[in-house]
């Protein structure tokens, strides 16, 4: 009897179904925006990371088309071989200028930026302290680095400090890694206190601004700017694919850090350079972030309005603490979350159920955009009220 070496896959899928953890893709048609066409229906979109509404902006589209016409569709090689263009350097300068850092380096995604940066700055003899709710890319970068990884309780400074005191001395370098806006909860890391402890214990700090760039801080530079920590020693990661409406990731920091990464980060060295279209769109987006603060102001008015409505008008729902465009309503089980997600969809609202293993408690996750209007929020509230 031959045994099928792949038979475990179907069994594994069965287990996923039984736990209500099964997920599949949903097809969106047309351009992204506050209203999207999903499976033939028009829905109000609370599922997007396009916080400033730039992914469908005519200026980004025009920049991508112009770059494609001038430079072609592919960059044809890695940056160190044949893939580098002046456009990449312009984008890196624009990121460094927005972040107020000496330099920046663009990766093909935020995931690759995290993996590449973490795995190249620490190794076997080193320690990583990691918030338990960190994004998958931080966690997998930590694993790939070969360093000892210790997780601390989410945003808990007492636990964080205890773990530093108990472990720091046994290792050569220490890297602290944290999301700045936590992607599935919407709360912020206590950055100033983490920085103070990093300094006290001689640690590096890498902060992931994926959901904060373009959104947080007076100039949209992120949580680092929001907390007034711009001039402090930091490694800043981010993505071009959320508020910036394009695709790609970056590391921003000191000139020597960036120079080191260009020579040591495998996920930058051994992958094809960002396409001309993605690069030009991201560059156009950063210019808009710099020149149109009213977009960010509008986003924040929307966030504060919706938060207030949820607290005042929906006492039956549990809103998780948030200081960002990400607002989560907790539900008891994965099955409940899926059911509410489906009911919302019937009511014309696209807001996804987030379940284990992504998070440990199930929820509906609502992402606010600058381009939502009052009517969108009213429809959301009506739908939620009719459910519970
Ligand atoms: C989305 C996200 C990433 C990954 O960015 P991509 O550019 O989409 O690969 C990394 N970190 C955090 C915290 C994120 O939310």
TrEMBL record:
This protein's record includes keyword RNA-binding: no
GO molecular function terms attached to this record: 8-amino-7-oxononanoate synthase activity; pyridoxal phosphate binding
Reactions catalysed: 6-carboxyhexanoyl-[ACP] + L-alanine + H(+) = (8S)-8-amino-7-oxononanoate + holo-[ACP] + CO2
Enzyme superclass (EC): transferase
Protein's pathway: Cofactor biosynthesis; biotin biosynthesis
Domain Aminotransferase class I/classII large: 43-384
Keywords: Acyltransferase, Biotin biosynthesis, Pyridoxal phosphate, Transferase
Modified-residue entries (N6-(pyridoxal phosphate)lysine), positions: 242
UniProt cofactor(s): pyridoxal 5'-phosphate
InterPro entries named in the record: Aminotrans_II_pyridoxalP_BS, Aminotransferase_I/II_large, AON_synthase_class-II, AONS_Archaea/Proteobacteria, PyrdxlP-dep_Trfase, PyrdxlP-dep_Trfase_major, PyrdxlP-dep_Trfase_small
Any one GO BP annotation for this protein: biotin biosynthetic process
The enzyme's E.C. designation: 2.3.1.47
Physiological role: Catalyzes the decarboxylative condensation of pimeloyl-[acyl-carrier protein] and L-alanine to produce 8-amino-7-oxononanoate (AON), [acyl-carrier protein], and carbon dioxide.
Quaternary organization: Homodimer.
NCBIfam families, A to Z: bioF
Family under the similarity heading: Belongs to the class-II pyridoxal-phosphate-dependent aminotransferase family. BioF subfamily.
Protein name, per record: 8-amino-7-ketopelargonate synthase
Source organism per UniProt: Crinalium epipsammum PCC 9333
Lineage: Bacteria, Bacillati, Cyanobacteriota, Cyanophyceae, Gomontiellales
């Amino acid at each position: 009897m031959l045994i099928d070496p792949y038979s475990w896959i179907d069994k594994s899928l069965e287990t996923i179904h039984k736990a209500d953890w099964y997920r599949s893709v949903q097809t969106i048609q047309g351009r992204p925006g506050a209203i999207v066409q999903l499976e033939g229906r028009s829905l109000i979109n609370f599922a997007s990371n396009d916080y400033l509404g730039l992914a469908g902006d005519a200026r980004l589209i025009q920049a991508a088309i112009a770059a494609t016409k001038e430079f072609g569709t592919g960059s044809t090689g890695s940056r160190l071989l044949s893939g580098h263009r002046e456009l990449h350097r312009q984008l890196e300068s624009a990121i460094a200028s927005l972040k107020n850092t000496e330099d920046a380096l663009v990766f093909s995604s935020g995931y690759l930026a995290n993996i590449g940066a973490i795995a190249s700055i620490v190794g076997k003899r080193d320690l990583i302290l990691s918030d338990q709710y960190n994004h998958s890319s931080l966690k997998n970068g930590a694993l790939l680095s070969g360093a000892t990884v210790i997780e601390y309780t989410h945003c808990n400074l007492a636990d964080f400090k205890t773990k530093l005191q108990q472990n720091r001395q046994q290792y050569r370098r220490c890297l602290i890694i944290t999301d700045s806006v936590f992607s599935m909860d919407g709360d912020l890391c206590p950055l100033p206190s983490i920085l103070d402890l990093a300094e006290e214990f001689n640690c590096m700090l890498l902060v992931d601004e994926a959901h904060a760039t373009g959104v947080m801080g007076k100039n949209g530079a992120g949580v680092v700017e929001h907390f007034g920590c711009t001039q402090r020693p930091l490694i800043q990661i981010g993505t071009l694919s959320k508020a910036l409406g394009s695709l790609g990731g970056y590391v921003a920091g000191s000139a020597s850090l960036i120079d080191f990464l260009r020579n040591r980060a495998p996920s930058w060295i051994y992958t094809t350079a960002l396409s001309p279209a993605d690069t030009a769109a991201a560059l156009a987006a950063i210019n808009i972030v710099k020149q149109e603060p009213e977009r960010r102001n509008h986003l924040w008015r929307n966030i504060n309005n919706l938060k207030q409505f949820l607290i005042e008008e929906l006492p039956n729902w549990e809103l998780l603490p948030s200081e960002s465009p990400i607002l989560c309503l907790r539900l008891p089980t994965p099955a409940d979350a899926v059911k509410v997600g489906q009911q919302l969809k019937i009511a014309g609202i696209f807001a996804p159920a987030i379940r284990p293993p992504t998070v440990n408690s199930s929820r509906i996750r609502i992402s606010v955009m600058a381009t939502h209007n009052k009517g969108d929020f009213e429809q959301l509230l009506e739908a939620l009220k009719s459910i519970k």
